[in-house]
Design a protein that fits this description.
about 190 residues; alpha+beta; Alpha-D-Glucose-1,6-Bisphosphate, Chain A, domain 4; six-stranded antiparallel beta sheet; about 35% helix
């Protein structure tokens, strides 16, 4: 008798991008429960960023007139894995090194992202992970992973990454700080 097993559903960004050669991770302990941090994360708006909003405007990722737009719902990635109060994963496929970035159709999930192998593209994503601490606080972690589909795309993105990596990290740190401020109500 033939065995028919269902493929395991991928949950984490690392499972969707196992060959990622560009990565960054930032953590922040927030004095709030995972439920409160989750609500603050989902409520995060472009206008909440204090340090890096001008960088996003210059890159065309944000418009100062639309600071009320949701970062997670109207941001540079599309949600594909949402586990309330635990994990949020957003992904995209594109060519961000171009003056006007080109995007491929949005993958339906981490499995589709992982399977995409058309040359000339970058598969990328951002994950937020919430981990409760025993004292009622929460560790909020953001991870960014990027995986090129071929060597030519890898070389193009590597040049681009050298320019933007410090700013990318600063944006992530600013996002974590904005979530912490929302939790404090400031």
């Amino acid at each position: 008798m033939e065995s028919r097993t269902q493929p395991l559903k991928l949950r984490t960004l690392a499972e969707g991008l196992p060959g990622a050669s560009f990565r960054e991770r930032h953590d922040r302990v927030i004095d709030a429960s995972p439920a409160r941090v989750w609500d603050a994360l989902l409520a995060l708006r472009w206008g909440d960023l204090r340090l890096t909003a001008p960088l996003l405007v210059v890159r065309g990722l944000a418009d100062p007139r639309t600071g009320r737009r949701s970062m997670l719902r109207e941001g540079p990635v599309v949600a594909v894995q949402v586990e309330p109060e635990a994990r949020w994963v957003g992904v995209r496929i594109g060519q961000p090194w171009r003056p006007v970035p080109t995007l491929a159709p949005d993958p339906a999930g981490l499995e589709e992202l992982r399977a995409f192998d058309e040359p000339g593209w970058l598969k990328f994503g951002m994950e937020f992970l919430l981990q409760p601490l025993a004292d009622g606080r929460t560790v909020l972690t953001t991870t960014t992973l990027c995986e090129a589909t071929d060597q030519a795309a890898h070389r193009k993105f590597a040049r681009y990454w050298r320019l933007i990596e410090p700013f990318s990290g600063l944006i992530r740190i600013d996002m974590l700080a904005a979530v912490a401020r929302r939790c404090r109500g400031t």
